[in-house]
C-alpha cells in the first residue's frame, strides 16, 4: 500500500529534462491546490457561510480538473494537461464570478493566479490569449453592472475572507515553488559550471592538439603528391611537438630496409640513409610495430653514433601502419637536455601517425589510380584508334571480312568485299546462319570445323570455295558482348591461283628447258663473288653450293683461271656483250675442259654459263689425231705406192728380159742356159710372191683379227725364242729373258709377230760378234704403260738411219735376206695397240728396240 501511494504521488520522469521539471511543477502545484480547495469546502460547510451548493460543486469540479491534468501529465502529454487545466480553471472562475458578485467576487483575483500559472506552463501566445480573455470578461461584468442588467451584492465577509485566504495561499505556494525551483536550478547550474570548468581545464590542452590535428588531417587528406605530403606531415608533427628536428623513413618496395625520405633540423643531412630492421630507433619501431620513447638516447643500448654526434637527447618514434602493415616510421626528437615527451604527446603522435599513414596510403593509391587512369586512357585511346582503324579497314578493305556467331554461324556483320566475293545479299544473309545459306556441305562438316577451331583458337590458310572464286580463309575466335564469335577473313586468290598455275606451267617449262641445258649457271658479282647457282644435269660442282656461295672465285680457282674469269667478267659488264673463254682442270693436266660464257645482268653482276667440253675437246683431239694419221697414211701410201711400183717392177723386168732369153735359148737349143733362165724367172716370181704376201700381211695389221686379252709377256717371249730356236742355235746366240715382266693386254697373234720380227732382226744382224747375246726385259713406264726392250750386241745402227728402218722396204744391207718390211710391220702392230716404238743404237755396240704396251683395256 505505501509503495502504491508513493508511485501514485511520485511525479513522472522523462528523457527531456525540461519536460520532467514542468511535469513535477504541475503535479506539486495541483496537490497544493487540491488541499486548499478541500479546506475551503470543509470550512464553508462547517461555518455554514454559504447556503447554496453550487460554489461547493464548482470547487469540487476544480479538483476533478486537477486530477485529469495529473493523469495527462503522467501519460507524457504535459502540454495538453497544461491547456486543459488553464482553460478549465479560467472557465470555472468566470462561472463563479458570473454566479456570485461579478467584479467584486474573489474569482476575479484568481484570474491573476491563472495568468501566472499559464505563463509558467505555456508560451507567450497562450498567456496572451488567456490575458485577453480575462480583460474581456472583466469589462463584460463592468458593463453589465453599469447598465443595471446585473445587480451586485456583497458576500459574507467570512466567506470572502476564506476565498481570499485560499487564493493568497495558492499565490504563495506558486511563488514558493518558483523561487525554490529557481534556487535549485541555480545550484545545479553552479555545480555543473564548476564541473565543466574542471573538465575544460583537463581538455584544454587536448583541444589545442585535436584542433591542430583536425586541421592537419584535413590538410593531409587533401594532398595528392607524396613529396609535399611528407613535407607537410613532418612540419606539422614537429610544430605540434614543439621541436625542429624530425624525420620520416619509408619501407623500400622490396621490404628489405627503411630509407629516410625526408628530415629536418639536425636530421636533414641523413636523407637517403638506409636503416635495417631492428637497427636504431626507427628499425626497432619497424620491427615491433609499436611506438618507442627514448628519454636518454645517449644511454640507450641501440644508439647510433651518427645521431649521438648530431646531439640527439630524446626521441619519440611511431609506426605508420596501414592495414596492419608498417609502411614507415615518423620520428621527432629533442636536442635539449632534460626535455622529455609527455603521455599526451605520445597519444597525439599515435593518432597523428594513423592519419598520416592513411594520407600516405591515400596518396599512393591516388598515384596508382592516376597511373592506372593514364594507362587506361592510353589504352582507351589506342582502342578507339584501333577500332577506328579496324572500322576503316573493315569497310574499305579489299579483303572480305565477316563476323558470325560460333554457336550456329549466324552472320552479324560483313563488309562489301565479302558480299561481292560470296555473291550473297546483305539483307538476305544478315541474321541467317551459314547452313541455311548452303555454305556448308552439311551440319556435320561445320561441326568438325568448329571443333578444330576451338582446339586451335585460330585457323589460317584454309582454302574456301565461293561461286567462281577461290579464296584463302583466316578464322579467329573473338568475344562480342560476352558472346563467342568468329572473325572470318577471306583473301581472293582466284587471279593469284590462275597466275600460280600459269607460273607452275611456266616454271615446269623453264625447268625442263634448264634441265635439258647441259650448262651450269652462276650469278656472280662484279668483284667475283658467287651469288647464286643453277646446277646442271650433266656437270656436278666440285663442292656443295653452300660452300662456295658468297665466296670469291679467287679463293676457289687457280690464279690463271681466276684472272681469265675476272678479265672476261670486266669486259662483259663494260661492253654489255657476251665474252667466252675456255679452261681446263686441273691446270697442267687438263683432264676436264670447260667453256665459260659471261653475259652482263647489270652494272654490278653478271651471269656465267659453264659447259663441259671435254668430249668435244676429245673429239677435236681425236679428229686432229685422225687427220695426222690420215696424213701419215697418205704419205705412207705414197711411199708404199712408190716402193711397190719400184720393187715389183724389178721382178717383172727380170721376167720379161729372161722370157726373151728363153726364146733365144729354145731356138738355139741351149738347154743349160734355158734351165738357168727358167730358174731366174722362177726366183723373180718367188720374190714377187714374197713381196705380195708381206704387203698383204701389213695391210691386215691395221685391224685386229683376234679379241684382246691379258698376256704373260715372259711366256710370250719364251714362245718366240723357242720358235726361232734354229737360227739362234745356229749362231750360238744366248737369249736372256728378264723375270717378273708385267703382263700386257692385246692381240696375242699380232704381238707374236712383232716380238718374232724383233728377235729375228737381232739374230740376223749379230755380225761377227764372238759372244752373241739377246736380252728381253722391261725398264720403267711411259704414260702408265711399261717400256719393254729387245737388246743385242750386234753390228748396231748408225743414228742417221734409225728413223728409216721403220719405213717400207727400207733395208740398210741390200744383201741381207728379207724384204725390209719387218720393222714396218712391228711398228704398225705396236701403234695399233696404243704404244710406240723407238731404237737406241750406235755402230758396233749393238741395238736396243724399246716399245710400250698397255697392261689393260682403255678406259
Shape: rod-shaped
- Which residue ranges are poorly predicted, with pLDDT under 50 across at least 5 consecutive positions? none
Mean pLDDT across every amino acid position: 78
What is the makeup of the main sheet? 6 strands, antiparallel
Could you name the key traits of this structure?
18% strand; 859 residues; rod-shaped; 6-stranded antiparallel β-sheet; alpha+beta; 24 helices
Topology:
Layout: H1 2-9, H2 17-47, H3 54-74, H4 78-99, H5 106-121, H6 124-146, H7 157-221, H8 226-241, E1 245-251, E2 258-264, E3 274-275, H9 280-288, E4 292-294, H10 305-309, E5 314-322, E6 325-334, H11 343-396, E7 400-405, E8 411-414, H12 416-422, H13 426-429, H14 443-456, E9 458-466, E10 469-480, E11 483-492, H15 494-516, E12 519-525, E13 530-534, H16 545-548, H17 553-556, H18 559-575, E14 579-585, E15 592-600, E16 605-612, H19 614-668, H20 671-701, E17 709-711, H21 713-723, H22 725-730, E18 734-737, E19 744-746, H23 748-764, E20 773-782, E21 785-792, H24 822-832, E22 837-841, E23 847-852
Parallel strand pairs: 18-20
Antiparallel strand pairs: 1-2, 1-6, 2-3, 4-5, 5-6, 7-8, 7-11, 9-10, 10-11, 12-13, 12-16, 14-15, 15-16, 17-19, 20-21, 21-23, 22-23
Helix pairs in contact: 2-3, 2-7, 3-4, 4-5, 4-6, 5-6, 5-7, 7-8, 7-11, 8-11, 19-20, 20-24, 21-23, 23-24
How would you describe this protein?
- This protein is of the alpha+beta class and 859 residues long.
- It is 55% helix and 18% strand.
- The protein has a 6-stranded antiparallel beta sheet with strand order 3-2-1-6-5-4, sandwiched between helices. A 5-stranded antiparallel beta sheet has the order 8-7-11-10-9.
- β22 (837-841) and β23 form a beta hairpin.
- It is rod-shaped.
- The protein starts with a helix and ends in a 7-residue tail after the last strand.
Amino acid at each position: 500500500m505505501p509503495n502504491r501511494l508513493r508511485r501514485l504521488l511520485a511525479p513522472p520522469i522523462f528523457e527531456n529534462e525540461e519536460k520532467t521539471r514542468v511535469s513535477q511543477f504541475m503535479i506539486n502545484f495541483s496537490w497544493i491546490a487540491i488541499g486548499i480547495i478541500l479546506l475551503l469546502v470543509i470550512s464553508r460547510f462547517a461555518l455554514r457561510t454559504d447556503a447554496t451548493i453550487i460554489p461547493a460543486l464548482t470547487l469540487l469540479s476544480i479538483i476533478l480538473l486537477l486530477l485529469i491534468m495529473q493523469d495527462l501529465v503522467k501519460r507524457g502529454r504535459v502540454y495538453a494537461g497544461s491547456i486543459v487545466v488553464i482553460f478549465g480553471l479560467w472557465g470555472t472562475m468566470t462561472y463563479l464570478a458570473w454566479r456570485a458578485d461579478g467584479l467584486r467576487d474573489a474569482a476575479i483575483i484568481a484570474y491573476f493566479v491563472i495568468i501566472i500559472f499559464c505563463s509558467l506552463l505555456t508560451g507567450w501566445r497562450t498567456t496572451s490569449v488567456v490575458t485577453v480573455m480575462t480583460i474581456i470578461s472583466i469589462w463584460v461584468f463592468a458593463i453589465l453592472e453599469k447598465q443595471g442588467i446585473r445587480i451586485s451584492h456583497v458576500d459574507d465577509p467570512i466567506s470572502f475572507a476564506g476565498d481570499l485566504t485560499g487564493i493568497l495561499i495558492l499565490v504563495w505556494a506558486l511563488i514558493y515553488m518558483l523561487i525554490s525551483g529557481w534556487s535549485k536550478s541555480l545550484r545545479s547550474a553552479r555545480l555543473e559550471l564548476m564541473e565543466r570548468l574542471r573538465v575544460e581545464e583537463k581538455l584544454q590542452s587536448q583541444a589545442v592538439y585535436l584542433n591542430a590535428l583536425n586541421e592537419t588531417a584535413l590538410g593531409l587528406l587533401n594532398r595528392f603528391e607524396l613529396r609535399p605530403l611528407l613535407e607537410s606531415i613532418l612540419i606539422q608533427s614537429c610544430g605540434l611537438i614543439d621541436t625542429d628536428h624530425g624525420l620520416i623513413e619509408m619501407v623500400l618496395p622490396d621490404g628489405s630496409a627503411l630509407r629516410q625520405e625526408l628530415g629536418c633540423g639536425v636530421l636533414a643531412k641523413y636523407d637517403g640513409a638506409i636503416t635495417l630492421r631492428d637497427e636504431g630507433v626507427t628499425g626497432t619501431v619497424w620491427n615491433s610495430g609499436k611506438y618507442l620513447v627514448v628519454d636518454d638516447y645517449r644511454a640507450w643500448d641501440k644508439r647510433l653514433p651518427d645521431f649521438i654526434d648530431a646531439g640527439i637527447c630524446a626521441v619519440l618514434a611511431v609506426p605508420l601502419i596501414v592495414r596492419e602493415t608498417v609502411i614507415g616510421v615518423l620520428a621527432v626528437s629533442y636536442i635539449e637536455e632534460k626535455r622529455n615527451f609527455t603521455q599526451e604527446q605520445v597519444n597525439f603522435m599515435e593518432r597523428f601517425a594513423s592519419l598520416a599513414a592513411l594520407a600516405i596510403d591515400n596518396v599512393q593509391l591516388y598515384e596508382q589510380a592516376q597511373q592506372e587512369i593514364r594507362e587506361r586512357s592510353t589504352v582507351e585511346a589506342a582502342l578507339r584508334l584501333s577500332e577506328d582503324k579496324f572500322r576503316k579497314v573493315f569497310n574499305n578493305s579489299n579483303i572480305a571480312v565477316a563476323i558470325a556467331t560460333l554457336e550456329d554461324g549466324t552472320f552479324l556483320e560483313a563488309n562489301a568485299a565479302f558480299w561481292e566475293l560470296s555473291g550473297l545479299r546483305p539483307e538476305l544473309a544478315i541474321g541467317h546462319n551459314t547452313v541455311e545459306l548452303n555454305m556448308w556441305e552439311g551440319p556435320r562438316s561445320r561441326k568438325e570445323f568448329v571443333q578444330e577451331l576451338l582446339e586451335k583458337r585460330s585457323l589460317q590458310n584454309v582454302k574456301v570455295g565461293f561461286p567462281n572464286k577461290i579464296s584463302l580463309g583466316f578464322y579467329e575466335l573473338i568475344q562480342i558482348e560476352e558472346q563467342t564469335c568468329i572473325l572470318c577473313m577471306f583473301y581472293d586468290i582466284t587471279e593469284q591461283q590462275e597466275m600460280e598455275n600459269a607460273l607452275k606451267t611456266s616454271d615446269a617449262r623453264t625447268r625442263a628447258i634448264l634441265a635439258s641445258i647441259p650448262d651450269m649457271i652462276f650469278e656472280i658479282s662484279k668483284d667475283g663473288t658467287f651469288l647464286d647457282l643453277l646446277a646442271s644435269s650433266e656437270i656436278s660442282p666440285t663442292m656443295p653450293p653452300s660452300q662456295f656461295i658468297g665466296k670469291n672465285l679467287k679463293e676457289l680457282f687457280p690464279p690463271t683461271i681466276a684472272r681469265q674469269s675476272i678479265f672476261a667478267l670486266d669486259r662483259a659488264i663494260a661492253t654489255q656483250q657476251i665474252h667466252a673463254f675456255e679452261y681446263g682442270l686441273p691446270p697442267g693436266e687438263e683432264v676436264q675442259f670447260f667453256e665459260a660464257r659471261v653475259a652482263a645482268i647489270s652494272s654490278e653482276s653478271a651471269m656465267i654459263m659453264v659447259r663441259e667440253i671435254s668430249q668435244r675437246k676429245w673429239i677435236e683431239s681425236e679428229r686432229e689425231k685422225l687427220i695426222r694419221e690420215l696424213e701419215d697414211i697418205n704419205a705412207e701410201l705414197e711411199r708404199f705406192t712408190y716402193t711397190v711400183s719400184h720393187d715389183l717392177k724389178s721382178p717383172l723386168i727380170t721376167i720379161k728380159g729372161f722370157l726373151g732369153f728363153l726364146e733365144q735359148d729354145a731356138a738355139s737349143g741351149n738347154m743349160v742356159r734355158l734351165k738357168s733362165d727358167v730358174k731366174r724367172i722362177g726366183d723373180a716370181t718367188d720374190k714377187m710372191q714374197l713381196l705380195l704376201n708381206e704387203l698383204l700381211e701389213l695391210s691386215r695389221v691395221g685391224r685386229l683379227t683376234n679379241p684382246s686379252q691379258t698376256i704373260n709377256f715372259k711366256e710370250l717371249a719364251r714362245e718366240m725364242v723357242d720358235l726361232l730356236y734354229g737360227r739362234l742355235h745356229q749362231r750360238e746366240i744366248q737369249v736372256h729373258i728378264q723375270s717378273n715382266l708385267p703382263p700386257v693386254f692385246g692381240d696375242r697373234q699380232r704381238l707374236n709377230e712383232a716380238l718374232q720380227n724383233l728377235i729375228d732382226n737381232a739374230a740376223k744382224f749379230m755380225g761377227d760378234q764372238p759372244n752373241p747375246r739377246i736380252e728381253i726385259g722391261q725398264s720403267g713406264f711411259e704414260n702408265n704403260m711399261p717400256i719393254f726392250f729387245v737388246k743385242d750386241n750386234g753390228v748396231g745402227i748408225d743414228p742417221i738411219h734409225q728413223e728409216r728402218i721403220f719405213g717400207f722396204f727400207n733395208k740398210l744391207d741390200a744383201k741381207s735376206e728379207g724384204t725390209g718390211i719387218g720393222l714396218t710391220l712391228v711398228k704398225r702392230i705396236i701403234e695399233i695397240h696404243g704404244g710406240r716404238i723407238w731404237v737406241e743404237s750406235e755402230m758396233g755396240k749393238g741395238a736396243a728396240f724399246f716399245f710400250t704396251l698397255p697392261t689393260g683395256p682403255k678406259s
